Amino acid sequence: MDSVFVTSRKQRLFREVRDYLMIALGMLVYSIGWTVFLLPNQITTGGVPGISSIIFWGTGLNVQYSYFAINGLLLIAAFVILGWKFVVKTVFAVVFMTLILPVIQGMTEGMHMLHDQPFMACVIGAAFCGSGVGIALSNNGSSGGTDIIAAIVNKYRDITLGRVIMLTDVVIISSSYLVLHDWEKLVYGFATLFICSFMVDQVVNSARQSVQFFIISKKHEEIGHRINMDLHRGVTYLDGVGAYTGAGVKMMFVLAKKRESTTIFRLIKDIDPNAFVSQSAVIGVFGEGFDKIKVK
To answer: For 241-275, b where at least 16 C-beta lie within 10 A, e where not — what string?
Structure first.
């Protein structure tokens, strides 16, 4: 019993460490897209970075200061509604990004990538930003800003994160015209918004995809026990009868995340290489260990 507890504690610690590493990666990817491709070409992104960009163009105040201050207010709302676990990881993301921004700006100072190709800068920068936000959200974190608003809305309503971010960012990007006075840059800003929202949904949805397994094996008890203990996934035993042999069989029904499929196949192969396995994708899974049911 003690060994099981220790193993479970190690698994939780590993998941937490992995979350923080992936959030850091997401913020690094976002920072590169923002400071290397968008900011030098005066292309507005959404959220707090978009507000910080407008403040920078209007006043010259470095983006990391306004980014950190605005997020501080939003984190208070996140603490009240989403809980301390979300806030802790978001604080980590905000602090990490605040620290990494001047580093990236210093390394790329004087570098004007795609300066004469604003559309390509828009597409590449938005792809980086959207991917970074998606990585953070997929690992229970956030880059702050409209991500917090999106996470709050998504908690109570079945609206995609990308759509919420897109709607809330329209006003921010439109405001950039007050500083830049350039309709062309405004158009690029909206293109950035749509690409970024698309990438967020692609990354988040790919991480949330679920699969179902039907497994027939004479060693069903051992396989079911290992799936319970190693993956913390439920297993349902179903009674069946082979039409050809007339013999009774035990069938296991398992729902899991797509990323866990390889682990399940390896586990089955180690225990019973002759097991019959059917895997199929499912549109949505709601309940314990998966998404919560959200009704408008």
So the answer is: eeeeeeeeebbbebbbbeebbebbeebbeeebeeb
Which of 199, 168, 208, 197 minimizes the C-alpha distance to 292?
208
- Indicate left, alpha or beta for 252 from its phi (over 0: left) and psi (-120 to 50: alpha): beta
3-state helix, strand, coil in the chain (%, to 5): 65, 10, 20
Neighbours of 125 (CB within 10 A): 30
pTM for this predicted structure: 0.66
Spatial separation of the C-alpha atoms in residues 203 and 296, rounded to whole Å: 24
d(CA 5, CA 137) in angstroms, rounded, equals 29
In the numeric block, the tokens 């950039």 are attached to 176
Cα separation of 145 and 71, whole Å?
6
Q: Nearest to residue 89, comparing CAs of 26, 160, 179, 46? A: 26
Cα distance between residue 162 and residue 254, in whole Å: 30
Q: Which amino acid is at 161?
A: L
CA 27 to chain centre: 11
Q: What is the DSSP letter of 259?
A: G
Q: What is the pLDDT of residue 166?
A: 72
Q: Which domains does the chain have, with CATH numbers?
A: 2-207 (no CATH), 210-282 (3.30.70.120)
Residue-wise pLDDT tens digits, 245-279: 888 888 999 988 887 888 889 889 889 989 999 98
